[in-house]
Amino acid sequence: MTLEQVLVSHEAPRAGAQSVADRALLEDASSVSFKATEEGLRIAVEAKPYGDVILQTRETACSWHLTEVLPASCGPELDDATLCCAAVAAFVDEGQCLCQPRLHFLEDVPFVQQILELGVQCGVEFPLPPANESLLSLRGLEQCRPFLEDSPLGKLTPEFIGLTEEELAALGPEELPTFDDLYSNGLNSIFPVGNATANITRPQPSVLINPQSTQATFNALVLYPESLNSTFAPFPVIAFAPGLGVPPFGYIRTLRLLASQGFIVVSPLSTEFVSGFGSLEDFKAYGADVAVALQWAVAAGADGESFLLGAVDGERVGIMGHSMGGAMILEAAVVAQQNFSLHVDGVFGVSPICTLGACDLPYEAAMKLEETQVKFLVGEFDGISPPSHSQLFESLLPESTGGEVVVLEGGTHCFGEVEPEFWAAFNAECGKGTISPFEQIREWQMQAWLFFESSLR
Prior knowledge:
Blueprint: H1 3-9, H2 34-46, H3 58-74, H4 81-104, H5 110-121, H6 145-149, H7 165-169, H8 179-182, E1 193-201, E2 217-225, E3 235-241, H9 252-260, E4 264-268, H10 280-300, E5 312-322, H11 324-340, E6 344-350, H12 360-366, E7 373-379, H13 387-396, E8 402-408, H14 437-456
Parallel strand pairs: 3-4, 3-5, 5-6, 6-7, 7-8
Antiparallel strand pairs: 1-2, 2-4
Organism: Ostreobium quekettii
Protein name: PET hydrolase/cutinase-like domain-containing protein
Domain PET hydrolase/cutinase-like: 256-334
């Protein structure tokens, strides 16, 4: 494909992107730089009512350059190859240690594919590891070390896996302790746990079309106490919203623990395929699927053909989520209340993210969430979603809603169940902070259990 063909095929700027007429920072190739990108990001952030809590880091500048500057420079209405190639070069030359890894893990996104093609046509090489090589090798590049230390990538801290530095240095990746070698939960199981995959029909067509979702239906993971017909039934139900790009299985031990304590847990599988570059409609669909999953579980309790018949207490419902899911549960709770007449008794957000373009929905939803209990848990050293994000959402809640923010001392963003060998290649700060990921997860589990025991029992 020639450069001209790539330019023509490149998608138009997203809604909200700068128009050609207003694109003062992109008037000529010499103006395209990360300094100009950071200035454009600063202006956009300051225009938002929640702008004072949005993080402006090199990582967010990468996202802004990728989603706003590149499409604006290389869109079909432009035929200036010089401007386009300058934007590609700035992405590579100035942002290589953090920006390029984003491309390697997002190669299925159409405009990312086109940017990779543009690099070839512009004579700009992408020298960092391809997708089939570990990002761990980035730490061996001298120019990358300062950026990686301040990035969301985690690190393999020896004491967190029970080793000395010398012992760690002597082990290969396949010899490291596994997550299960080091993990233990703090609660004894009351019930054995069953699991199923449910195919759920939406009331309205969705924009989420992926291996787990069609326009009309989506799959969801269901975990439940196996004693569904016991004297302990019916059970409260909790809908769970995972973080971006992570399936519910990335939190399976926490979800199983809640089920073992007598909660039915349902979590959409469709949201795994929503990326940080998704549209506003994608994020609306994200929140909607969490609400629809909750409504499905409640309805299944009265469905004569469902394995959950008689097992679901529709008067005791809650929602929980982590990261982007921790913010989108605010939207989901409002949808559940307004669209399905479900009273959501408890909402538990863990490290809720407030990012430019994705914060509008939970920001507005928080103000509409009446007469419920809301709790946020966030790590003290969370550099992806710092405590200020949770405090913002809590400050917006109506007077009829009880809100609380708990800051976990020494914690980071790492509440997912990531194998230690991948900590340094995963954007969740695993292995940073002053407490281990295993301690973080146990604390979350205890906090969630206590919260839902209080709000749903």
